[in-house]
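Worked problem 6 (solution included).
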Amino acid sequence: MPATTTMDDQHDNGQYVQQLPALLLRPEQAAQVLAIGERTLWERTKAGEITVVRIGRSVRYRLPDLERYVSKLTAGIPGDD
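Solution. The predicted structure is:
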């Protein structure tokens, strides 16, 4: 399920706004998606385990990169066959 922006359902002028999928997540959003703390996210990012997008001084995360990180973590864990 793609993350969505936190836009309100209505603008000030009363018109409804469609929520769009977020292409980039802020660190607090990425940590929430992974169900980890922001500090752990920063440590994994600094270690090069999670790819980031830098826009100026801002750091953002792509959902496919977070999914790839989880896949790598679970690759060595045997499943219930």
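Discussion: The two ends are 26 Å apart (CA to CA).
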